[in-house]
Amino acid sequence: MSRQSLTKAHAKISELTWEPTFATPATRFGTDYTFEKAPKKDPLKQIMRSYFPMEEEKDNRVYGAMDGAIRGNMFRQVQQRWMEWQKLFLSIIPFPEISAARAMPMAIDAVPNPEIHNGLAVQMIDEVRHSTIQMNLKKLYMNNYIDPAGFDMSSKAFANNYAGTIGRQFGEGFITGDAITAANIYLTVVAETAFTNTLFVAMPDEAAANGDYLLPTVFHSVQSDESRHISNGYSILLMALADERNRPLLERDMRYAWWNNHCVVDAAIGTFIEYGTKDRRKDRESYAEMWQRWIYDDYYRSYLLPLEKYGLTIPHDLVEESWNRITNKFYVHEVARFFATGWPVNYWRIDAMTDTDFEWFEEKYPGWYSRFGKWWENYNRLAYPGRNKPIAFEDVGYTYPHRCWTCMVPCLIHEDMVTDKVDDQWRTYCSETCHWTDAVAFRSEYEGKATPNMGRLTGFREWETLHHEKDLADIISDLGYVRDDGKTLIPQPHLDLDDPKKMWTLDDVRGIQFASPNITLNAMSDKEREAHLAEYAANGTHAVA
Amino acid sequence: MADITNQKERSFPKIEFTDSEAGALTFPSSKSRSYNYFEPAKKRATMYEDVTVDVQPDPDRYLTQGWIYGFGDGPGGYPEEWTTAKSSNWHAFRDPNEEWEQSIYRNNTAVVRQVELCLKNAKRARVYESWNRPWLKFIERNVGAWMHVENGLALHVFASIQRSGPVNQINTAVAVNSAHKMRFAQDLALFNLDLSEADVPFEGSAHREVWHEAPEWQPTREVVEQLTAVGDWCELLFATNIVFEQLVGSLFRSELVMQVAARNSDYITPTIVGTGEHDYDRDLGYTRALFQMLTQDEEHGEANKELFGTWLAKWVPRCEKATHTLQPIWSQAADKPVTFADSKQSANAKFVSVLEDLGLDIPKELDQ
């Protein structure tokens, strides 16, 4: 269809909307934003007549590649180190995708611009596509990869696992609370416009380097829909900016959304890329280098900064602090070490790091070995059952961390942890911004203005609370992370499948007590707590200036 | 000729044969190659089930930490309390159409190709020039008004519902329903554009005035707007797909347009409107399956039937008013092969059949 025809078609389709006069549409999902003074912004034009054939063609290419991968025995050359992390990633990502579909009516209801409603409804269908195409990719992995355990219980494990819950913010955050905060700022302006670059572009590159060309096939196809979504988000953002009353809310939401995306996405994708790869070429980009290219340059400098002239208060300090955490504070490496520490309650296996890996890490992140090298050597030493407990329960100089009440990634940069009594409970936060998110932003009032539509942090936010003082074997059994012989664990701290004696079983972890740091903290006297927190801050990693 | 003496050394990852394919080793769970967290409806899970079931988690199943975000005035996620209808197991629902990514694009692309070919042939054969003026006027006014209905239901009824259902299977089926409606509304609008550009007396923008002001269409607009005001997602789905679509939608599309167009030299409109009827047939399929599940629920079936009875009592009169007010348009075509009474009788019979499938009483308001 020519551009002129498309413009005419779009104009005709826009005649289909009308202002209701007989009844007021139900307000299912409210917003504290106002669009009374907002000029109507026209998003990218898309009509269904061209949309469906375009997507069908994209699908045909994806499914052709899948057939080719099977015929070409792709799984003879995939790296298990890589595929194991896909058990976590692909258990999480279909939920954010389907949540994005569910978020669209919230934006449709909140934004009085019929021009944009079509674009949002098309995005809804895109997101159904993304969720189901990713579920199908996972099914293909389950059917063709050597170790299906973990893929086979994927959606259950996602729902009952600590890492699944961290990832779930990247989904629940799209569909809950203030409609604009959730469906526009958090989902579209930050998650889709910034962080899908590392999710759907940087990570597939790494998959290909590890023998898996299906992940790039699927995720590049997914990413090709994102430009329309970014256009939807941008249009709504400009409309919101047009009314000065929205400015404080925009500032609040940009801070929350940026920081939460950084905490969650950089934790996960950074780990998958840095610790899931076997490709240790020195000229291969590190996650930090990818982040600089895709997030800092492409998003922050090219997309966000120009919005400053329209009145958007940009969280420069948080962008810089994210970079500081990724480079100087070793955020991704701390997260990877935490995942590996918690291996018995995962539903995937984690490979040990080797001398080749050490050398690469030291090259890319100077100082890495002195912080993490010995620990990974211990991980390797304690990889098999019989003579020792899992590494989390051996003395290797590592303190099991407190969990951040807001982002639910543990407080791994110890000296940055904030502790406060909020809602009559002592809570720990990984950073000042996560403390602010809970104590200030997600409340019914913000800077003196009522914000009744803002969301609330709910649920059992510390995963360990559910398993306090239980036996580790019972926890794993209850979670269902046991293989079909009824005793061998799905998770293993190595990739050796050829020797049953190297595989941990429930018997190997029985008799180990699990404790919740938050319950323990709340049981302390003031004096005990102060001493504990001082010690916690002192024994963590310290930023290199 | 290019200089090949100073090329930078290329860097690429090494291929390594890892023998990581299924069956390479035997160990616990090495043959566990199906999703094991849900019960398939039949012996083996379908592709649709594999990519749909449990993608939306539930605190009543595996979501042990619960929903981690809430609304300012209530819980987040997908609370069952967002409808007054009750099920002892919402997760048992399966969409008989088994809609997922590939089916959505295959089916809708097939429709797009059919409609495009039809419209291209119409232009080439200059068929619009042979249409009589009353029929052109009929299309201009009535099919023009109807496209608003389809678009309104797409964006403000079905798109809205798919945020609220307690399980993914329901929400995805409704999202596809929304896409059907949006595509169909746009097809009608682009058909309107073709007619506007043809060398025939056709006012392409007349539909707006008709939709906003023509007396025969106002009760229909009123019902559509009333639908968008419903907060209970299950009532909204019932009122739209069981009541409105049967009594008003099918009456207009199947029992009027599809019956009278050919007699007025028009083989184009039925082709396009027929795709809308085909969509509705599929969408009624999932709707019927859902409400059958609810009326046959051992624990809540009787209470649901009573509830749906109150919904019928509320929505049937509104839709009846809309249909009866539309009666004059049956007289607007030059050739009138069906009467309003014939059409209404046929639509009512189908509606009664759907209600009987659901085990619901036939409302007394309905013309017998």
Q: Secondary-structure element sequence of chain A? A: HHHHHHHHHHHHHHHEEHEEEHHHH
Report how far the terminal alpha carbons of chain B are from each other. 87 Å
The value of Rg of chain A in angstroms is 24 Å
DSSP helix fraction of chain A = 55-70%
Order of helices and strands of chain B: HEHHHHHHHHH
Rg result of chain B? 25 Å
Largest sheet of chain B: none
Q: What is the strand content of chain B?
A: under 5%
- The low-confidence runs of chain B, each spanning 5 or more residues with pLDDT under 50, are none
Strand order of the largest sheet of chain A: 1-2
Ranges of chain A where pLDDT stays below 50 over 5 or more residues in a row are none
Pairing-aware structural class of the strands and helices of chain A? mainly alpha
- Percent of residues in beta strands of chain A: under 5%
Shape of chain B: globular
Which quaternary structure do these chains form?
heterodimer
DSSP strand count of chain B: 1
Structure characteristics:
heterodimer, A: 545 residues, mainly alpha, two-stranded antiparallel ribbon, 5 strands, globular, B: 368 residues, 10 helices
Task: Give the topology, please.
The complex is a heterodimer of chains A (545) and B (368).
Chain A: H1 3-13, H2 48-71, H3 80-92, H4 94-110, H5 114-144, H6 154-160, H7 162-175, H8 179-209, H9 214-241, H10 247-275, H11 287-304, H12 316-327, H13 331-341, H14 355-364, H15 368-381, E1 418-422, E2 425-429, H16 432-441, E3 445-446, E4 449-450, E5 456-457, H17 472-479, H18 506-509, H19 517-523, H20 526-538
Antiparallel strand pairs in A: 1-2, 3-4
Chain B: H1 47-52, E1 69-70, H2 101-124, H3 133-161, H4 168-197, H5 206-213, H6 218-228, H7 233-260, H8 269-295, H9 301-326, H10 340-358
